[in-house]
Fold this sequence. Notes:
The complex is a heterodimer of chains A (238) and B (171). With 238 residues, chain A is α+β, with helices and mostly antiparallel strands. Chain A is 36% helix and 25% strand. Chain A has helices at residues 15-36, 44-49, 60-75, 91-108, 188-200, 204-213, and strands at residues 3-10, 114-118, 121-124, 130-135, 142-149, 152-158, 167-168, 173-174, 178-185, 218-223, 227-230. A seven-stranded antiparallel β-sheet of chain A has the order 1-2-3-6-9-10-11. In chain A, strand 10 (218-223) and strand 11 (227-230) form a beta hairpin. Chain A starts with a strand and ends in an 8-residue tail after the last strand. The model of chain A has no long low-confidence stretch (mean pLDDT 90). In chain B, 36% of the residues are buried. Chain B is built from one helix and nine strands, in the order βββββββββα. By secondary structure, chain B is mainly beta. Helix content of chain B is 9%, strand content 26%. At the A-B interface, strand 1, helix 1, helix 2, helix 3 and helix 4 of A face strand 1, strand 4, strand 5, strand 6 and strand 7 of B. Strand 11 (227-230) of chain A pairs antiparallel with strand 7 (133-136) of chain B. Chain B: Keywords: Signal.
Amino acid sequence: MGTAVSIELAADRPAPELRALIGDVCGWLHEVDARFSTYKQDSEVSRMRRGELTSTGCHPDLRHVLGACADLWRATDGYFDAYYGGVLDPSGYVKGWAVAEASQRLVDAGCPTHFISAGGDIAARGDRVWRVGVRHPWDETKVAWKLAVRDAAVATSGTYERGGHVINPRTGKPARFLRSVTVTGPDLTLADAYATAALAMDRDGLRYLEKLATDGYESAAVTEDGRAFTTPGLPVAT
Amino acid sequence: MRRSTAAVFGTLAGVGMIFGVRMAAPTQIVPVAEDAAAEAPADAPAEPDQDDAGGAQPDDEGDAPADGDAPADGGGAGGLTDGEFRGTGSKYAYGTIQVTITVEDGKVSAADATYPTGGDSATINPPAIEKLNESALTAESGDDVDAVSGATLTTEAYRKSLQAALDKAAG
């Protein structure tokens, strides 16, 4: 499985330094993949699945992820679950978290203004406005919204690429009411989890998104029948 | 202002994000999933469901298990006790989820969730969404954006297409 990651640094520094920063980010993402991949048999997640590794013996990053997944399980009323069917799969958390961590590394390295995009997960940092399109859920060549964000995260979950693979735990059936949910707010890992949880909630997802706005997470959603919903505070680009 | 852009083609563990949300299991049960078998949650241990439904603890107040101890972070190694365990009810907007698991040979062999069947659960259509704006879906060109946020693309076709594009870009 592959995910394309694009990184843009806006810093007045020599090109070799910028390349080194990007190299550091790439190294981090590969480290994450080696540890958390559910496809690599020697990853820590795979070893934990086989009972060869416990939470006391694993890397602190994995411990962190397991704890964060548990917190999200609570925060989303059970809609976010890294243990579906009793099998550990923290992937729903890992990508957003990995990008958020990569972003923080760049900040720590003196590069506060940057942009990282990995699939649906975007960290748009620093003191400038970044324009982020929200993919049109039926036409991959178009965008349904353009957002203008500053120092914020944008995450999108949709059923259109995998088709009904998000299960609504209340019905046990694939969630089909919402086709695409985009959440933007301060924290990428949360935005990503919220978007996925809202998708799983079917109709209730809209009410959930409404509530998230009070926590500073604005959203845009498209229903399977083509209606578009946005929270009033969504930072739409002009 | 210098800019540097890199497209990285790699395998990021999180690509399966859509798989991250599936059947709910109560917090108490989370850590006993087969791989993390060892961990016993410190804050809200599931009670063995003896021969009646006594293990059920519907929680009208909807208290989630206490904050603090992340169940998957509980530490301690040790096997699971065989038997049937029922989690405490976890209340959310329209009802309560309660999950029962079966442990055999120290591992979770089955999990079953129950949902409310009456009263508040009858809500199918949510109340009107008053705070969301509804509009017609629009389709615009994305030529003038820094990036596009969309559901993760994981198909092999995409992978090949991307690789081709990268090769071309490198070329």
